[in-house]
Specification:
This protein is of the alpha+beta class. It has two helices and two strands; from the N terminus they run E-H-E-H. This is Alpha/beta hydrolase.
Length: about 70
């Protein structure tokens, strides 16, 4: 099994809740960003929320890199 880190916004055109639910059963760490699109932009023009989401993703990515 592969290990990895998957980030996707629930407003991304690629997002599929059923597929993400299946991926939770794998070795992937998954972060679904609420109201984020493919570029992880949150909402319409919610710059502060977008920056906070990306900061959270970077923190989790650092954890993944440290443990692997």
């Amino acid at each position: 099994n592969h290990e990895g880190f998957l980030v996707i916004g629930d407003k991304d055109h690629q997002y599929n809740a059923d597929q993400v639910d299946q991926l939770y059963k794998t070795n992937l760490q998954i972060e679904v960003v609420k109201n984020a699109n493919h570029s992880v932009n949150v909402g319409g023009y919610e710059t502060e929320n977008s920056i906070e989401a990306i900061a959270k993703i970077i923190g989790k990515l650092k954890e993944v890199v440290r443990t692997n």
